Amino acid sequence: MVKLEILEEQIQKYMKKYETKSYYVEYLRTKKFGYQKILENFSGENVLELGSDGAATSSILVRWSKRLTIVDMIDKFTSLIKEDSLLKEAIFIKSKWEEFIPQEQFTDIILTDSLEHVDNPVEILTLIKQWLTKDGKIHIIVPNALSFHRLIGVEMGYLNTPYDFNENDIRAEHKRVYDYDTLIQDIKAANLVVSKLEGIQLKFLTDTQLSTLPNEYKEALNKISSIANKNCAELYACCQKS
């Protein structure tokens, strides 16, 4: 319960900070739902976050973890310490993931909103699995091409196919949009075992449109996500060494 309270507290903090950007507030809400999934499979002994989005994730993880290391080629981290002094306890390493050479193994490796940005995700997964402890877990969250809101966008003519880039994809410089099957395919190609693969938040509208609706509605959509895992807004995968 304490960790869930920490999650809610940090998400609310950043929602307030970005309250004028309605689409980003909804992004943070989906982030909260995703981290609820992570927490179900989270050890927290020695955690590696690959890529800090400059939002709530590092602040959440530093409170959930006994030890946190963050690796990112862009330093979004130093400025965050001014807002969250507890982040001084984390280790930040400015590096490309491919060039990072860890001196220890990790119980949890966090790849949230990251894998869709890299040129060769199988190579990255193959590399980082070597950094896991024997029973360690890689936690992956990616946007889902077959989300109902994207499928509706295709029918309305906003996208030619659900795999085309929408405005959010372009703004975030995504390299691909995963679906349930292609995510499994890349994980297995890296000789990792998928222990859990679930959808995060049923979504029929864009983030900007969702921002006008009651929070209870969005919470309810997330609670029934399991009825349509393959068509949720995002996908969560927990995987381990084979």
From TrEMBL:
Keywords: Methyltransferase, Transferase. Gene3D superfamilies: Vaccinia Virus protein VP39. The keyword rRNA-binding does not apply. GO terms for biological process: methylation. GO terms for molecular function: methyltransferase activity. It holds the Pfam family Methyltransf_23. The keyword Phosphoprotein does not apply. This is SAM-dependent methyltransferase. The lineage of its organism: Bacteria, Pseudomonadati, Campylobacterota, Epsilonproteobacteria, Campylobacterales.
